[in-house]
Specification:
The chain has 444 residues and is mostly beta strands. The protein has eight helices and 25 strands. Strand 1 and strand 2 form a beta hairpin. This is F-box protein.
Length: 444
């Protein structure tokens, strides 16, 4: 019999770099993480004359206040006893735009120049995602309902314009598929049932239409299994075409070439073995982009037990600090009101280590019984975020916030299952050919 709660913790289980070749995955899709060559210290110290101009802000003397270098929870009322150095390219896009509208100093700065935009979006990769979108999971293809939520400490410095949320609501059942470094990958279903892929930046209110694959034109109702990730300059967009024949176990892998503006096939297909790949079942398939190698990763035996229970839900997420170039993945299982999390400690031998096992009611949540969990995600590699019927909570997994539960907000999806999409606002460019979002139109 399972006790009311069980938590195991030691320092070795905290998120940390484990090895360099582990990929990041979501719902069974796996792709290589691009490593950036610049270190955090290099961004701060290697400043040109233009950088120093951008990174210097003098505020008027007033009462002394502490300064948070991360600027995640920036208080616009803070002033200092002497001139302080504030790095605008470390600020979220929302904070930059607020300063620009209120400060003569910021109005004179070249905040739209490519140099500043690249640096701000690069620095954002070293910050935690402060926000997320919430959507119902009941109708993946046609749902157009989106809610936007912040972590409580980020409400003043990060966000999306209200008219962008209205755009999502009005634009042909536009659903968010993924987000990375301030860009959102959306999928829209036109009136003729044709699928349209969109990349947009809510902060700059720009967008870019991705050419629709012939496969999606021919089979508009097929699943869209896609991987999307950005660095400060480029983005990766990979799509796994679902085989048209049920007996087939080979997924054609295609990537979008930004330079050529077209989709291309990768030489080797994604081979899933003797059975058809189903992306919600308790096993993990890995695909290495560089050499086209496909392999299956065994999940922990404990995770497989009871996996066919109707109450069992699983997810695979990134694990480790945002600032780390190396990282791992974690497997989260929710079954019979119990969260269990395992971290992959050795990719080659498929070794896992359990880092958490706890009942929902033992987390300290004050809600009427029964507490029903409608969806969950691990954000920033160290925080379990989950939704009940009415509210969204966070539960700390790292040394700094271990076992700390916090109510984030209420949501309006009631009995619907929900899914999360992490978001961080940046000034990042959508790509060549991007245009302004048609925000002023009321219907599409």
């Amino acid at each position: 019999m399972l006790p009311s709660h069980e938590i195991t913790h030691d320092k070795s289980l905290d998120p940390k770099p484990v090895y360099g070749s582990v990929s990041s995955v979501d719902k069974g899709l796996q792709y290589k993480r691009i490593k950036t060559s610049s270190e955090h210290t290099g961004i701060v110290n290697l400043e040109s004359a233009q950088d120093r101009r951008e990174n210097t802000l003098c505020s008027s003397p007033s009462t002394k206040s502490s300064h948070d270098d991360s600027i995640g929870g920036l208080n616009y009322a803070n002033t200092y006893t002497r001139p302080q150095r504030l790095k605008p390219n470390w600020l979220p896009a929302t904070a930059i735009q607020k300063f620009k509208s209120a400060s003569d100093f910021f109005r004179t700065m070249p905040l739209e120049e490519r140099h500043f935009v690249l640096k701000q979006s690069h620095n954002a990769l070293l910050r935690k995602d402060p926000c997320f979108f919430l959507q119902p999971n009941s109708c993946k293809k046609y749902s157009a309902i989106n809610e936007f939520h912040h972590f409580p400490s980020e409400k003043t410095s990060s966000g999306v314009p209200h008219n962008f949320l209205k755009f999502l609501e009005n634009y042909l059942a536009c659903r968010i598929l993924a987000s990375s470094n301030g860009l959102i990958l959306g999928c829209s279903t036109k009136k003729n049932n044709q699928t349209e892929l969109i990349i947009s930046n809510p902060s700059t209110q720009s967008w870019f239409l991705i050419p629709t694959l012939n496969h999606l034109k021919e089979y508009p109702d097929s699943e869209i299994n896609i991987a999307f990730e950005c660095n400060s300059k480029d983005f990766m967009l990979f799509l796994f075409e679902v085989p048209t024949e049920w007996a087939s176990s080979c997924y054609i892998v295609k990537f979008y070439s930004q330079e050529e503006g077209m989709w291309k096939s990768i030489g080797k297909s994604f081979f899933t073995g003797t059975r058809r790949m189903i992306f919600d079942t308790p096993y993990i398939m890995a695909y290495t982009i560089e050499d086209g190698e496909s392999r299956m990763l065994r999940v922990p035996k404990e995770a497989r037990r009871g996996s066919h229970d109707l109450s069992c839900k699983m997810g695979i997420y990134k694990w480790g600090k945002v600032t780390s170039l190396d990282g791992s993945m974690c497997l989260v299982r929710f079954r019979k009101c119990v969260f269990t999390i395992w971290v992959l400690t050795d990719y080659k031998s498929c070794k896992w280590k359990r880092v958490l096992k706890i009942r929902v009611r033992a987390m300290g949540i004050i809600e009427e019984e029964p507490i029903i969990v409608k969806g969950f995600i691990v954000m920033n590699g160290d925080c379990l975020v989950f939704a009940t019927k009415k509210k969204v909570y966070s539960y700390g997994l790292s040394r700094e916030n271990y076992r700390v539960v916090e109510e984030i907000s209420e949501h309006g999806f009631d009995d619907d299952e929900v899914c999360f999409t992490c978001y961080s606002d940046t000034l990042r460019l959508c790509g060549d050919g991007a245009t302004t979002l048609p925000l002023l139109q009321q219907s599409y």
